[in-house]
Design brief:
Blueprint: H1 20-24, E1 32-33, E2 37-40, E3 48-50, E4 61-64, E5 67-70, E6 78-80, E7 87-95, E8 100-107, E9 119-124, E10 161-168, E11 171-176, E12 179-185, H2 189-196, E13 213-216, E14 223-234
Length: 235
């Protein structure tokens, strides 16, 4: 495994505890900020299990040096026990050369694979993986549908990136290293047109659930996460 660098914890900076609307301009509605719930705190996971399984898949994921690592080989995604409608999730991610993963949301577990029902925030080594050649499948993208902003900032392989997804009132934002890189409306006519012209058109459950699980994808390559936390939002 790549040695984990000694970084300050970016998700604990004081400004991140401001009300969501003030930081993101997602909505002007009054909202109550709920407690953060850790899914991984650097020591243990909480509320995560294997996709389609009742327990945590120890053969596919391991905790080392304060990070949650994929184990190359048998790929089993991690899925939250809880489902979410309006929420914010923050996570730190790091890839090894050629690494590929993602955070998938709005997932219906009855689908054979998590990506067949949920929208994906792409986690990727843009320079070392073939998906990096298409902006729509590059790091921070809404996978296969929307490219991230041209001015996105991506840390070098082996360094930490911070990711953030906000879903509130049907409005969705992807953030990468404190920059908003994708913005769209869930099930909007524009998005439905993109879906109809993509591989997802063959999966009728894709992005249909207003209330769904969150998944940390194991794509087979070695990647790691730290400080994963989520909170429900109340518009």
């Amino acid at each position: 495994m790549v040695a984990s660098p000694s970084f300050p914890t970016p998700l604990e900076d004081a400004p991140r505890d401001e009300p969501i609307a003030a930081r993101n301009r997602v909505t002007t509605a009054t909202e109550r900020v709920n407690e953060w719930q850790p899914l991984f705190d650097g020591v243990a996971t909480n509320g995560l299990r294997g996709y389609g399984q009742a327990t945590f898949p120890d053969a596919s994921w391991q905790i080392s040096d304060g990070r949650l690592w994929t184990v190359p080989g048998q790929a089993v995604d991690l899925i939250t026990d809880a489902t979410y409608t309006d929420f914010e999730i923050e996570f730190t991610w790091q890839v090894t050369p050629g690494g590929n993963s993602g955070v998938i949301y709005g997932v219906v577990e009855s689908a054979e694979l998590s990506w067949m029902s949920g929208a994906e925030y792409q986690v990727l080594d843009d320079s070392g993986h073939r998906d990096g050649g298409d902006p729509r499948t590059s790091a921070g993208a809404l996978y296969g549908l929307l490219a991230p902003a041209d001015d996105k900032v991506l840390a070098p392989v082996g360094d930490d990136n911070t990711g953030r997804i906000v879903v509130l009132g049907g409005h969705v934002e992807h953030w990468l290293n404190d920059r908003r890189v994708v913005e769209y409306d869930w099930r909007s006519p524009a998005l439905l047109a993109l879906i109809a012209d993509s591989k997802f058109r063959d999966h009728p459950a894709f992005m249909t659930a207003e209330d769904g699980h969150i998944v940390i994808q194991h794509h087979g390559e070695e990647v790691s996460y730290s400080q994963i936390r989520v909170r429900a939002l109340d518009p």
